[in-house]
Amino acid sequence: MRAKGHRPGTPKAAPRDDVALYVSQLPSYVFGPRATMWWGTFGVIAIEGMVFALAAASYFYLRSHAREWPLGVPPPELSWGMVNMAILAVSTLPNHWTKRAAEQHDLRKVRIGLTVCVAFALAFLVVRIFEFRSLNVGWDTNAYGSIVWLLLALHTAHLLTDFVDTAVLTVLMYTGPIEGRRYADVADNAVYWDFVVLAWIPLYFIVYWAPRL
Amino acid sequence: MSLPAQAAATLHRTWSDPPGVRGWFSALDHKTIGRRFVIAAFGFFVAGGLLAATMRLQLAFPEMKLVGPDLYNQVFTLHGTTMMFLFAVPVMLAMAIYLVPLMIGARATAFPRMTAFAFWVYVFGGLSVYIAFFLGSGPDAGWFAYVPLSGPEYSPGKRSDFWAQLITFTEVSGLLVSIDLITTILKHRAPGMTLARMPLFVWAILVTCLMILFAMPAVMMASTMLILDRLVGTHFFNPADGGSALLWQHLFWFFGHPEVYFIFIPGLGFLSMIIATFARRPIFGYPAMVLALIATGFLSFGLWVHHMFAASIPELAKAFFTAASMMIAIPSGVQIFCWIATLWKGRLNFATPLLFVLAFFFILVLGGLTGVILASTALDLQVHDTYFVVAHLHYVLIGGAVFPLFGAFYYWYPKMTGRMMDERMGRWNFWLFFVGFNVAFYPMHHLGLAGMPRRIYTYAAESGWGPLNLLSTVGAVMVATSVLLFIVNAVKSYRHGAPAADNPWGASSLEWATSSPPPPYNFALPPVVSSREPLWVPHHPSRPPHVTGLALDTRESLVTTAIDAVPDSRDTSPDPSHWPFTAAVALSIMFIATIFTPWGLVWGSIPVTIALIGWFWPRREETERHLALEKRP
Amino acid sequence: MNGLFHALDPAGPQAALIAQLWWLTVAVCALVLVAVLLAFFIALRRAPRADAATPADVKPLQQAEPRTRLVVTAATIASAVLLVGLVAASAATDRALMQLPLQNALNVQVTANQWWWDVRYDDPDPSRIFATANEIYVPVGRPVIVRLRANDVIHSFWVPNLHGKKDLIPGTEGTIHFRADRAGTYHGQCAEYCGLQHAFMAFVVHAVPQEEFDRWAESQRKPAAAPSTAPQKRGHDLFMSGTCMMCHAIQGTPAQARKGPDLTHVASRERIAAGRLANTPENLASWIRDPHRHKPGVNMPAHVLAQGDLEALVAYLGALR
Ligand code: HEA
Ligand code: HEA
Ligand code: CUA
Ligand SMILES: [Cu+2]
After folding, report:
1. Which domains does chain B have, with CATH numbers?
2. Element (H or E) spanning B472, and its range?
3. pLDDT at C19 exceeding the cut of 80
4. Domain ranges, ordered by start, for chain A
């Protein structure tokens, strides 16, 4: 009785719509904007997008009041930033592949896809360490140093959370317990990764190229 | 039609919070959390009010020595901070957590664990700043903590850090509640409750939460920069190393101005609900009301510089912000005109909730008009940072939010407790509040024009400000008495009040369709809606009156489409769990540790991560229940 | 209209422009308030009474209410028109404020410190620059350009009878222009919260005829009077050998520090400690012994001095006219 999911007023014959709106035929999970979780994720993305936008605005505000920019230090070296840009760009492929696999409920592909995504996130995090080193300025050197460190650190924080998130999801998809909804979670996770990638593009230009303009 | 008793019992068991102490910390029912949230926020209101009383006593006479400058500065800072961050914004969200699911015919909010987590984070944040205050480390740089005064050089010690971290706590809480409420409103409305049939309070909350999403990040950014400047030596606000003191002001007010409207807009929502019920007719001009709410939300992001007219800002920008600030009076005006039209054409039931709401028409309008005065750059240069601004802000905050809130307390108290509040005490409460309020705050306009700056701990007798300050203190005592009366009324009525019927005021929105207080599952048979005033307009005979087919033994709920509220899928609400509480404890430890060392963030994040994994890791038994109900899209 | 000073009692063109705009805006607002309250009270009076059992009137859901809509629309349009008018009036005032003629202006530099004002009178000839504190003399009828800076935190310069306020922000320099057309003493006050003694960070502006101003400036340019009596001499020596000279300057002596107010002509001021105390020998003595009694938290330490030493210091400072 319990596990069967008892429903009240379940009529034996076909339900009549003017007596009650019968809803148990509806799917118990859905993908994309139809799902509540997607809206939750979207809310988080809106907040964090705003955070990035404000950090970028602060960068340009400080810049507009500075006598020179960057303040007395050379601009960041480009190489590691390029590497990471490339990693991120490529990572969208397994990410979307995984998302599609999730939508098709293909557990095997989802497992492979997630594992690859975790590897990408990890690679990105490692390169990030070198990126911090190539900034040519400390966070406590001056306001320029503070704001570029902040931009990079904010993005890293998102990477880190998404990395942990994806890793946990990967383990879960291997060990279970699994239900259909988990595929929707995988798809939402992919949306979030897209956001992390998209957010990086403007930040990359601000951190690496704005000081050269 | 009603549910068979046995089915109702199952439903009751499924949706109840678990018993016992552990259960208390695991509660997820939005009504439980909402009630706790409201009570906590009201507690902070009393605390903030006692601080205000301290200030009023200190200022009653010139050269008073009740508190010295150091304590006074902490007191006014904590008063402003408490009222804005720990009372006014949270109490509105708390009311929404309680009311919104009921008003839209849902069984729960979209993310109940997030709601519970947000509540605990808020409580811990609020307590931490009060503990700091009692340990002599209360923040003292004002509620907007301008740098460099709040920076490392001029605020040594940990006072400003506690302030900045309090901001982080309340922002985390506010943002999570907003995501939760937005999703609830867009995805859990009763079938048939299209956006165009949504109660105006729900509209107000939707607009408020969207604003929170886009405004709060600014203050989080600012407070993070402040902490970094103080803790690890960054230079965001240090002009000597390329930083800027004005950057703080821009970031703070980019949030701060919308913030005052997060307080005001839910107040407008209360007004619309209460006026409709007590004028016995729908609000005149529903589309205009909705558009006005949205317009207010949008415009409020374009006004922030009006708090900075005295700083060095380009003249053209000032002119723009003057114009924008004045234009926001139009949507406020539209709503006021529509309400007056509603009253004009209605039949009036003068119960206490209506009285509190009617005070708005004098107090808020007067406060709004002084706002229009402040919006003019030239005039603001004279009255900025004087008691004129203190008068303005209390007129709009108390007239626009606190009076409607008290009205809302009287109005929804029967729903929340199953008992009516005492009407006679209600009237005393109201008149004492109304008269006391004006006696306390009206004189401040004159004090401001007579040159009394705000945030002064005392003043010389020759200033001539003594008599009006004394009058103001007398008014504050009246307000305090009236608040005390309210507390007595609420406590007494809880035990001895007349039992409340399901719909004691003859209102039209869905929360009145269920019992008072509502059962844990809100509606035995979730309603279907076919008009904007569901309890006033008889249900359309060809439409089904309610939903059926949701599980009884699992917390299953219906998800509808965002605009038309067509049934679209089923969702399951999580079971009660201690993880939200545990995670909130872990997060609080991390935040507090970070005040003392940057390593707090590093080590503190480990327990937080563990708690979050524990929170989200599905339990086998739960998964099995879900699998039994599963239907692929 | 009580109080020492009043934003609506202008003594110069800037404050007068603002006061005019003030009365216009207040008149419009009063009109709106009266109109709204009138409509409100009429609505309350004419609407029939009801109770919770009164059946609700749901006709408005189906039927438009064209007359009401017309009235609400008209009120909205009227509000918009009034507001546009107020915006225009405000913009016009802003323009007028910027157009104060500045020929032959007096240049003063004011630097705010936690909790006092350093005032310097600029001059193309550096030897003619002089400093005072918490007190600004300006000639009647002559425009004044005040350059504003802050040494520590944000402060705000405000003389309500003359003009609105202007913040002094560390790291940036602001200016404010005004003119006093009426002779008199105008109270000024720091208007931005700046810490413990924000309450007592006042100053005065003395608007005096040009000749009197010139006389005053000339006397201020002179170095400090040499001590003439024995107690004054003793005070001088104490000042120069004690802590005082580490913070204060007295021109013509070795004391040249600028952490506290310039004391070269301290005896010529009406009040000391940024308006906190009248400049009397008793107050001076009490201030030097324990400034924290008068301004708790102030950036001047208490001094434990023998009575004779204290009297000597007061005698010395009291002679610095
Ligand atoms: C609930 C909160 C709330 C609300 C609703 C408002 C509403 C408004 N406020 Fe206020 N404000 C605060 C809370 C609020 N404010 C706080 C807390 C501060 C101080 C912060 C601090 O420094 O500590 C502040 C400070 C503040 C300042 C800065 C003052 C200074 O520091 O120098 C300004 C300046 O422009 C301003 C303007 C306005 C305006 C134009 C409105 C408008 O929205 C008002 C619109 C409403 C009406 C005008 C009335 C109804 C309209 C009609 C009847 C239509 C017809 C009207 C006309 C034709 C005029 N406010
Ligand atoms: C919603 C917001 C809100 C509310 C409700 C209030 C309420 C009050 N405020 Fe507040 N106020 C602010 C927001 C608010 N304030 C802000 C933002 C500032 C600016 C701060 C800054 O400059 O940084 C400010 C500043 C401010 C000042 C200026 C301080 C200064 O610049 O030096 C003053 C001075 O009088 C004041 C007074 C009061 C008074 C008398 C009340 C009264 O209405 C309070 C009434 C309530 C009580 C008195 C509680 C009574 C309760 C009991 C008696 C119950 C006791 C019972 C038990 C213990 C069981 N406020
Ligand atoms: Cu200086 Cu306030
Ligand atoms: Cu504002």
Report:
1. 19-243+500-629 (1.20.210.10)
2. helix B466-496
3. yes
4. 27-212
What is the SS3 assignment for B50? helix
User: Mind listing the pLDDT tens digit for each residue in C62-100?
Assistant: 888 999 999 999 999 999 999 999 999 999 999 999 999
Q: Which residues of B touch A141 (CB under 8 A)?
A: 235, 241
Give residue-wise pLDDT tens across range B323-349.
999 999 999 999 999 999 999 999 999
pLDDT in tens, C251-292: 999 999 999 999 999 999 999 999 999 999 999 999 999 999
Tell me the H-state helices in A137-180.
143-175
CA B529, B531, B533, B534 dihedral sign is negative
- Report chain C's mean pLDDT, rounded to a whole number: 94
Global pTM reads 0.96
Q: Report the helix count and the strand count for chain C, using DSSP H and E.
A: 8, 12
Confidence of residue A12 (pLDDT cuts 50, 70, 90): very low
Residues of A with CB below 8 A from B206's CB? none
Kindly give the distance from the C-alpha atom of residue B595 to the centroid of ligand 4, in angstroms, as a whole number. 30
Q: How far apart are CA B456 and CA B443, in angstroms?
A: 17
* Residue of B72, B200, B308, B337 for testing the chain C interface, max C β-carbons within 10 Å: B337
Using the Cβ of B191 and the Cβ atoms of chain A, whether some distance falls under 8 Å is answered with yes
Closest CA to A2 of B5, B521, B627, B631: B627
Residue A212 has pLDDT above 90, yes or no: no
CB-nearest partner of C164 from B330, B350, B381: B381
The stretch B278-293 carries a mean pLDDT of 96
**What's the pLDDT tens digit per position in C148-172?**
999 999 999 999 999 999 999 998 9
| Residue among A35, A143, A181 minimizing CB distance to B626 | A181
Are C118 and C188 in contact by the 8 Å Cβ rule? The answer is: no
Q: How many helices (H) and strands (E) does chain A have?
A: 5, 1
| Residue boundaries of the structural domains of chain C | 13-46+65-97, 106-221, 230-318
Instruction: State the complex-level ipTM.
Output: 0.95
Chain A touched by B492 (CB under 8 Å): no
- What are the DSSP calls for B337-362, one per residue? HHHHHHHHHS-B---HHHHHHHHHHH
pLDDT at A8: 45
Ligand nearest to the CA of B389: 1
- Indicate which ligand has the atom closest to the C-alpha of B322: 1
The rounded distance, in Å, linking the Cα atoms of C298 and C194 is: 12
Return the ∠ at Cα C105 (arms to C104 and C107), rounded to 5°: 135
pLDDT value at A170 more than 80: yes
Reported as a single tens digit per residue, the pLDDT across A18-73 is 578 888 889 989 998 999 999 999 999 999 999 999 999 999 999 999 888 888 89
Ligand nearest to the CA of B375: 1
- C237 lies within 8 A of chain B by CB: no
Chain B positions in Cβ-Cβ contact with residue C21 (cut-off 8 Å): 376, 378-379
Pick from B182, B233, B609: which is nearest to A43 by CB? B182
Residue ranges of B 522-541 with Cβ closer than 8 A to chain C: 531-533, 536-537
One of 3.30.2280.10, 1.20.120.80, 1.10.3720.10, 3.30.70.120 is the CATH number of A27-212, namely: 1.20.120.80
* Domains C106-221 and C230-318 are alike in CATH topology: yes
- Is residue B507 within 8 angstroms of chain A, CB to CB? no
The structural architecture, per CATH, of the domain C106-221 is Sandwich (2.60)
- Inspect the interface and report whether the beta carbons of B454 and C167 lie closer than 8 Å: no
B241 near C CB under 8 A: no
Which CATH homologous superfamily contains domain C230-318?
Cupredoxins -  blue copper proteins (2.60.40.420)
Cβ within 8 Å, pair B536-C79 = no
